[in-house]
Amino acid sequence: MSIDTENEKRWYVIHTYSGYENKVKANLERKVHSMGMESEIFKIVVPLENEIENKNGKEKVVSHKIFPGYVLVEMIVSDRSWYVVRNTPGVTGFVGSGTKPIPLTESEVKKILGSISDDSVAGTANIDVEVGESVQINSGAFENFAATVTDIDYSKSKVKLVVDMFGRETTVEVGFDQIEKI
C-alpha cells in the first residue's frame, strides 16, 4: 500500500474505542518518541471543553470531551506514519474513505482548536527531557529547585521528579511547562 502525500503537515482525525481517547493519546505520544517520529507526527489532541457544574451548591469546573471516540493528530502522512498511528492500541482507523485519510480543512481546525480549553492543548506540548535527566523547576512551590526526572506522563502533561529537600529525596509532580532542561 502506498499513500500519496504532499509531504505537508495537516490535521487528521482518528477514531478510537470510546473512553480510550486519553490512552490512545498517551500511547501514540510514547510511540512517536520511542520511534523518533517527531518529524512526521507533531501534535496529538483530545479536544476538551470546560464547563461549570453546580453540585450541592458548589461550583466545579469539569472537562468534557467535545468529540468522544475521536482524537486529532497533526502529522505528515507517509506509509510509516500512517502505520504507526493505525497500529496504536485503541485506534480503530482514520476518518476518511478507505485507506486514505482525509485532512481537516483550515477552517475546521481553527474552529475546533479555537473552541477547546487551554488544558487540552497544553497536553500536546512536546517535552525535551528524558527519564534520568536533570531539570530546573521554574514555577510553583518548588521554584528554583534542581531535580531529576523519574517519570513522564504524556497523557496528563506531568513529570515526576526527585528533589533534594532538607537532605532527603522527595518526589514531586509538576506540569511540562514548569520545568526546563539544565
From TrEMBL:
Q: Which BP terms does GO give this entry?
A: DNA-templated transcription elongation; DNA-templated transcription termination; regulation of DNA-templated transcription elongation; transcription antitermination
Q: Does the keyword Transcription apply?
A: yes
GO terms under cellular component: cytosol
| Any Pfam family the entry gives | NusG
Asked if Transcription is a keyword of the record, the answer is yes
Q: Which residues form the NusG-like N-terminal domain?
A: 8-116
**What protein name does the entry list?**
Transcription termination/antitermination protein NusG
Lineage of this protein's species? Bacteria, Bacillati, Bacillota, Negativicutes, Selenomonadales
